[in-house]
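ARCHIVE CARD
Drawer: 12
Card no.: 0347
Subject: one protein chain, sequence and derived structure
Cross-reference: see card 0346
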Amino acid sequence: MTYQLYYARGSASMGVRVILEEIGATYELIETTIDMDKPRSPEQLALNPNGWIPVLIWNDKAMYECAAITIFLCDKYAEAKLAPPPDSDERGLYLQTLVYFSSSVQTAFQLSYYPQRFSDTSADEPGAQRRGNRRLRETWQVIDDQIGNNLWVLGDQFSAADIYLTMLTTWLKTSLGHPSVGEFPNVHRIATEVMKRPSVQLVYGSDG
C-alpha cells in the first residue's frame, strides 16, 4: 500500500513524513502550500475544508490533523515502537502530550503567525501576536518541566512524541519574538538528538 501525503515545507506535514519514514511505509508527496494567499486545489479542500495540511490518504480513505495521523500510524505500525501500547502505563502521558502539542502549543504558534484569525480588526493583530508569543513561552516551559531528567519526552523510550516536539521547535523564530529553544534545556537536548536520526535528516535537510 502506498500512502499519499499533502505536503509543504515548514508545515506539520514534515512531522508526518518523518513518521512515514520511521515506520518504513511507501508514500508519495502531493505538493501544496501553507501560503494563506494562495488557493488550494479542489481535491485538497474536499478532504479538508479548512485547507490545512497534513492530509494523509490511503486506499479510499483520508484524514487530517497531525496528532490524529501520528496516533493512527504509530498504532497501525506498532512494530516500529513509536508509541506506548494501549495498555501500558505510559500511554496516558503519550496521548496527553500529543494533544497538548496540537491544542496548546500549535494554537500559540497560530496566534503568532496568523494573528488575523484571532482579531476583529487589523489594529488588534499586534496584541494577538504578542499574546501568542507569551503563550509560546508558557507552553514550552510546561513541556520542559514535564521532561525533567527524562532521556526522552516519555521517559527512557524514544517515541513519536519526540518527533512531534522536534517538528515544533523548528517553527520557533526569535526574529518574530518567539523564545529561543535554548531557553528550554530539556526540550533543546531532545530536539538535538532527534535531529541526528536519518529520517529527520532526510526530511529536514536541504533537499527535504
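Annotation on reverse: The domain at 91-197 is CATH 1.20.1050.10 (Glutathione S-transferase Yfyf (Class Pi); Chain A, domain 2). The longest strand covers residues 2-7.
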